[in-house]
Each structure stands twice: as C-alpha cells, then as structure tokens.
Write a structure and sequence with these properties.
The complex is a heterodimer of chains A (214) and B (247). In chain A, strands 1-2 form a two-stranded antiparallel sheet. Chain A has one domain. Chain A has 214 residues and is mostly helical. The longest helix of chain A has 31 residues. Helix content of chain A is 63%, strand content 2%. The radius of gyration of chain A is 19 Å and the shape is globular. With 247 residues, chain B is of the alpha+beta class. Chain B has a domain of 168 residues. In chain B, 36% of the residues lie in helices and 23% in strands. In chain B, the strands form three sheets. A six-stranded antiparallel beta sheet of chain B has the order 2-1-3-4-5-6. In chain B, a hairpin with a 2-residue loop joins strand 7 and strand 8. In chain B, helix 1 packs across helix 2. Classes of the chains: A mainly alpha (214), B alpha+beta (247).
C-alpha cells in the first residue's frame, strides 16, 4: 500500500476522465471560454485553480460542522474570495512580474463554478484529507481540458504555441504559410472554445457509452 | 457540546464573526504588504519609462525590462530631466514620474488645470521625450509610455493593460504590436493627426511610417480602438510644449 488508498486514488483519477468537471459535470465552462485563446494562459489558470481549489476544499472541510446551512453559499464565497485576494497580494509584494500575468485570472477564479461546486458537493461532507485530494483531482481534470482547448485554439488561431511561431511566419509567408495556409481567426473567438469542448465531449462519450445520459 | 447551528441567532453570530475575521485578515495582509507593493509599482514605472526610450533587455521577440535592481540607477543615468506642464507653466520635479495620470484626468474633468508629466531622457546623444498616457480598453484601463523626438515622431512605446483578454487585447504589450509604433509620425505639417490602429491597413509590415496607421490585432478591435483614442486625446495635450520646443 502506498500513501493513497484505492478510494483516495479514485478521488484524484476520476475527475481526470470519467467524472471530468468540464465535460461530464459541465462546470467551469465560462472560464474555459474566456482564457483558452492561448496555451500559456490556460496553463497559468490551471495552476491557479489547482491551488485555490486544493486549499479552499481543506478550509471548508475543516469548518464544515460549524457552518450554518442557511448561509453556507455565502461562507464558501467568502472563503474563496479571501484566499484569492491574499494570494494576489502576496504575489504583488514578492513576485510582481508573475502577479501581472495572473491579475486577469483573479476575478475568474472567484466566480469559477467548479470551486463552488466542489465545496458544495464534496468538502461540506468529507474530511480535510479527502477533500484536498478531491480538490486536486478536479482542478487537474479542469486543467487537462483547458490545456487541450488552449493547444488547439492557439495552434489553429494564431499558428503559435506558448507564443512560439511553430507553423512559420504568416507575414513573411514561410513554413506552412508558404503553401497558402491561413490562420483561422475564428478559433480565437469564444464560441470556438465551446465547439472544441463539444468535440471533446463527443469523443469521450462515444468511447465510453456508460457516460451517455438518457 | 452541541450547538444548534440552524438557529437564527447562531447564523447571525456566525456571519458577524466571519466578516470580522476575514475582514481583519485581509486588512492586515493588505496594510502589511503595502510598502512592498508600492515599491514594486514605483520600480515598474521606472522600468516602463526606460523601456520606451530603448533602455531594455529585449531578446528575440519578447519584451524584457532592465532588472528591478538596476532600474533606479539607470533611471538616474538616462532620465536627465522630469518636467510638469500645468496650464502654461513648466516646472521641474524629480518625482514627476509618480504623478497619478488617472487623478489628473479626473481633475481636468472637474475643471482644474491638469498636471502633464513629461520625462526627458538622453541616450547616445539623442533626446527622448517620454509621456505617460492612460485610456480605456475593452474591459479596463490601458496605459502607455510613449517616447518621442522633438518633432513628435515616436521613438519607442510601452503599452500595458489592467485586464484585456489574454491572447487578444492583452497582446498590445507584445513587441510585434509595440514596435510597429516606432518611427510613426504624429504630426502632419504641425497639425496633430495621431495614429489609428487600423484593421484595413494595406501596410501590414509597417514600412510606410507617415500613414498615421499601425496594423491592428485580430480579435482585439475594441482594445485597438482604445489605443488609438488614447493616443489621439492624450498625446495631443503635449502639442503646445513640442511647438514651443521648435520655436
């Protein structure tokens, strides 16, 4: 037996595929649309959510028995907002460059429905360690989809990956562009993120029929 | 011990307790980190101003500032004079770069005389006049430091934004956009024309420097329009000063 029991491993691995927060639970679509035009932004967002969801789940789990259920949503919101603001302030003070890159995401993290969803569905009813694993697992599942979508949107929309021109130069007409290839500017617009997510959902459900709801 | 967590009294007490704890935690963090954050912002301004006049560590296609450690020293070395233009008066001040442009804009709206800071730098015998400007993008504020020569020909520019869309509007701070401005003319025989960020630009490689146009970024129309509007309204304010230079 390793560090994690079978049940714990399932907590981490399930959200990566068969219980993915984006493609199966259909949470966090809004931020998946907003920031996946670039691969780098997708990766940064994934790491931020990993942190906030991991820590937030533990905090909520620790205070789950003293939260009055009438105002639990407000309490959850306060916890996320406080966490995100503190992280933002600390970054601004000690890692200013990084904080400038991240500032766009701060608002998006607070309103990310995956975070509220996991607090509500898991952390309120489970212990801190399991909540932590659940948070990490779901954030990773979210991150995987974000990175896949970001990869295709940046590659097909701008012809770059992480800002590097991998397909040649569209103005100098080198590389693929020399053969008449054009960037698809449409890929940079938000609706295309939905279409890419839709394609992922389609592939995933056609491979695993058990996921299809009636 | 069992408390009834569903009673109204408990709920209200919990809410009050939570607000007090979270509020003081945030206030404490914010105030204890404030000096560090202000210092970072001050250094960033120096880095931005130096960047606009070409004192930077650009590598390949990415924009790199001089390091924060070196910034204060280089700032002293290259920026020879900082002036504040208010009404018709010009005063010098070593802290002109700390002037809050946003506050000055709202002063102007309230009918007060606006302070216009301008930083004069000298590098390799050439003089640079660097103006800080501020405008609106799609989501939030955008701003820039624009370095010009005495004829208002742009010598360098640094753009930044608070919250433009990553991958689209946020690209105004990428070199492929900022470098397009270098060499562009703002004046047409002494009248101020500004620069349009144009979608139908017949000059994507930006060879023609007197067309008063730079190439727009696909998918960032409103941010681009914001940049053009900011240049037109803000840099125009400096025109009288540049005219007085040439007389």
């Amino acid at each position: 037996m390793g560090l994690l029991s079978k049940k714990d491993t399932k907590l981490i691995l399930d959200p990566l595929a068969d219980n993915n927060p984006i493609t199966i639970q259909v949470l966090g679509i809004c931020s998946a649309l907003a920031i996946t035009a670039q691969l780098k932004a997708s990766i940064v967002m994934s790491i931020s959510v990993l942190f906030v969801l991991g820590v937030g789940n533990v905090v909520i789990s620790l205070i789950r028995n003293i939260i009055p259920s009438k105002i639990r949503i407000i309490v959850q919101l306060t916890v996320v907002a406080a966490l995100v603001i503190i992280v933002d302030l600390v970054l601004k003070a000690f890692a200013y460059e990084l904080s400038k890159e991240l500032s766009v995401f701060v608002g998006l993290i607070i309103t990310n429905c995956i975070i509220m969803g996991r607090f509500e569905a898991f952390a309120l009813g489970n212990g801190p360690w399991r909540s932590f694993l659940d948070g990490i697992g779901n954030a990773a599942g979210y991150g995987v989809i974000l990175i896949i979508v970001g990869f295709f949107r940046e590659l097909l929309g701008s012809g770059t990956l992480m800002g590097v021109k991998v397909l040649g130069d569209p103005i100098e007409k080198t590389g693929l562009y020399g053969f008449g290839y054009e960037n698809n500017g449409f890929m940079l617009l938000s609706p295309m993120a939905l279409i890419v997510v839709g394609l992922i959902i389609w592939v995933q459900r056609s491979r695993n029929k058990a996921l299809i709801e009636d | 011990m069992s408390t009834n967590t569903e009673s109204n009294k408990y709920t209200i007490l919990f809410a009050i307790g939570m607000v007090v704890i979270v509020g003081s935690l945030l206030a404490f963090t914010a105030s204890s980190l404030a000096p560090n954050i202000d210092e970072n912002k001050r250094l960033e301004k120096q880095q931005n101003i130096l960047y606009a006049m070409g004192v930077n560590e650009n590598e390949g296609s990415s924009a790199n500032f001089v390091s924060t450690e070196k910034a204060p020293e280089l700032f002293k070395q290259y920026i020879t004079e900082q002036i504040v233009i208010q009404g018709g008066n010009i005063t010098t001040s070593n802290d002109a770069y700390l002037i809050d442009v946003k506050k000055q804009q709202s002063n102007a709206k309230a009918g007060l005389d606006r302070k216009l800071p301008l930083f004069i730098g000298e590098k390799e015998g050439q003089k640079y006049y660097i103006a800080p400007i501020l405008g609106k993008g799609l989501w939030d504020a955008i701003w820039a430091y624009v370095a010009m020569d005495e004829n208002m020909v742009i010598q360098g520019a640094y753009f930044d934004h608070k919250g433009e869309t990553p991958g689209l509007g946020a690209n105004i701070k990428e070199r492929f956009f900022m470098d397009d401005f270098i060499g562009e003319h703002l004046l047409d025989n002494g009248t101020f024309k500004g620069i349009t960020v144009s979608k139908s630009n017949a000059d994507p490689k930006n060879i023609d420097k007197t067309d008063y146009e730079v190439d727009a970024i696909a998918g960032a129309t409103i941010t681009g329009d914001g940049v053009a509007a900011m240049i037109k309204s803000e840099l125009k304010l400096y025109l009288p000063y540049f005219k007085s230079l040439n007389n």
